[in-house]
C-alpha cells in the first residue's frame, strides 16, 4: 500500500474519531501483508482492533465509576479457602442471568469468608458484559440518603442507587442500629441488588 493511501487512511481515521486505527495503521498493514489477508479480513481486523480498544476504555472507566474496593474477578477467588462453597453455583451466577432477570443475589455467612470478594467478582463480570455497576455499604447509602433528604434532594440522590444495572450493597449486617432496633432481630446478609 502506498504511503499516500496510508496517510489518507490516518487522516480519515482521525476525522472519524478512530484514534487507535490512526495510530496503528502501519502495524496493521504490515500484519495484513505478512498474513496475506484478503480485503474483508483486513477490514475485520481494523474494526476489531478499534472496538477492542474502545471496549477496554469503557470497561476501565466503568470500573472507576463503580466505587468497587478492588477489581478482582471471580476467576481470582480461591475456592479452596471455602471448601463448603460450590464453585459451580458461583460460576452460574457469573453467567449473569440474575442481572438480566433483574433479580437479587445474596451471600450469607460470618465475617471474613469472602462474601465481599464474591460480590465484587460478580460486579466485575457484569461490568465486562456491559452492565453499569455501583458499590456502596448500607451504612453509607443510608447516611447519604438521610443527608439528601434533609436538604430536599432525596429524589436526585436515589438515582445514584437506582440508575446502575447492578447495585452491590455490602456490610448489610454491620449497619449501626439503635438498641431497640437490634434487640431480637437478625441482621440481613450482604447482597448484590439488581436495579431496573
TrEMBL record:
GO molecular-function term, one example from the UniProt record: ATP binding
Any one Pfam family match given in the protein's UniProt record, by short name: IstB_IS21
Domain spans labelled IstB-like ATP-binding: 12-176
GO BP terms, alphabetized: DNA replication
Protein name: DNA replication protein DnaC
